[in-house]
Amino acid sequence: MMGSQQLRNSVRGTRRFAAVAAAVVLALCLPYQVAAQAGFNNASGSDRTQLKPGWNMFSPQQDVELGQQASVEAELQVPLLKDSRVDNYLNSIGRRLAAQTPGHKFPYTYKAVNDRAINAFALPGGHIYINRGTIEAANSEAQLAGVMAHEASHVALRHGTNQASKASVAQMPLAILGGLLGGNSTAAALTQLGAGFTVNSVLLKYSRDAEKQADLLGTQILSDAGYDPRAMGQFFETLQAQDRGGNRVAFFNSHPNPDRRIESVNEEVARLGGVQRISRTSSKEFDKIKRRLQSLPATGPSQLQAQQQPQSAPGRPDWPSDRFVSVENSLLRIDYPENWKAYGQAAAMTITPSGGMVNDSSGNQALAYGALVNIYEPQADRYGQQLQGPGFGQVSGMSAEQATDQLVEVLQQSNRNMRVVRRQGSIDVNNQQRGLSTYLSNDSPLQGGGRETNWLITMPHADGLLFIVFTAPERDFQGYERAFQQMLYSVRVKR
């Protein structure tokens, strides 16, 4: 293992780089790129648009858990229709659509909401709610199925937790992000994100790009399920006509209207080969359900009331054990002191001693001692130019130095008192992997304030830029440094 003096010498050797690695921690808040993860299979002989989920700090199973908790809150706030015939009808269509929905096989369920506003919403993991006004406004079963396929596409593309993931990094300082990743349950993560069900829930705040993707994937699902895919655009025509007529459509409040929405859907229909010779447009049951809705009265919602109890702040944790154990996730394998614990959510991981996470002055759970691991996928810079230049490794067409440099401003916005103490230097990780090392100073979340040291390591990876942040209060960092070094040199990166 490289000694402390050798480490300092290796870092001291290359100080010409800008202080960019610090920004990696908050790189995740940039607009996600659809090609961030393995995507959906393209149908044979089809020129359909390729769509892939964006970066996400949650696993698909955690989508299900988060959605389940949010659905409990939602059903206390929205007036469910609670009519078994209507719900059974929606789910009969939903099963047909789910059979053609790509990606993780989420347990899709549909419930009708007793609200005459034209709207629908989907929670992570497959809980989908359709307003009775949407059913009443549809002119055919295919149009209703188009709305349902659009919402299922939000689930399949994991837009809700993608938004929550980006929001967590955009809004949370480094220490609070560590507390989020180190949470012991998805319920705690949901609370930390403020991602429960509300009108302004981050789980429902989709971008126009997300809406366009849901339109396109929904059109594909509609066609694959045997419906006339033109129905997607036809329903949007109905909505836009009502909106222009002065009757503001609620759907557009929660689903931002992309440019050329109808044209894009129709272009996707053409890429799919047009309408199949035998395609489903409507059904007798659709007409019966619409007549049934006319006989059902409207009701009002109940109110959600919840209380959260703050956690007491722990004392200073024990020093790291000399005995180490291993943990791995999709990015790497790493050793850590046996008296610490590792918490993982998808590619993200927090490793911390007991008492290493505390409540900050605002009551947020925050990381005071330990390490963070995650991946950042760089993109073109803010001016749309692809970065080029020399560096120790290329990441998406740019050097690793440049890929991290573009995020320094973002880091400082969320960590306003963070400063670079020692600028980027080259460092060998386990004699196999080369990385960049940066030392930073930041406010500590510990009671009484003070400063902490953040030792940031970045490395090129097949999926983007891998980063590790080792954190401890300044007064304790030297005592933890040997353990941090041993952890770093144990890293085995997966490709």
Kindly describe this structure.
The chain is an alpha+beta fold and 495 residues long. It is 36% helix and 20% strand. The protein folds into two domains: 4-30 and 315-493, 3-Layer(aba) Sandwich (Protein Transport Mog1p, Chain A); 34-294, no CATH class. It has helices at 4-12, 60-77, 84-98, 132-137, 141-156, 159-171, 174-181, 186-193, 208-224, 230-244, 251-254, 261-271, 284-294, 400-405, 408-414, 474-489, and strands spanning 109-113, 120-122, 127-131, 324-328, 332-337, 340-345, 348-353, 357-359, 365-367, 370-376, 394-395, 398-399, 419-429, 433-443, 451-461, 464-473, 492-493.
Given the C-alpha coordinates, what overall shape results?
A: elongated
Low-confidence stretches: 1-39, 300-314, 382-391
Tally the helices: what do you get? 16
List the domain count as a whole number: 2
From the N-terminal CA to the C-terminal CA, the straight-line distance is 23 Å
Instruction: Summarize the amount of helix as a percent range.
Output: 25-40%
Largest beta sheet: what is the strand line-up?
Answer: 6-7-10-16-15-14-13
How many β strands by DSSP?
Answer: 17
Average pLDDT confidence is: 78
How much of the sequence lies in strands comes to 15-25%
Structural class: alpha+beta
Give a short account of the largest sheet.
7 strands, antiparallel
What is the radius of gyration computed over CA atoms, rounded to a whole number of angstroms?
Answer: 25 Å
This entry's quaternary arrangement is: single chain
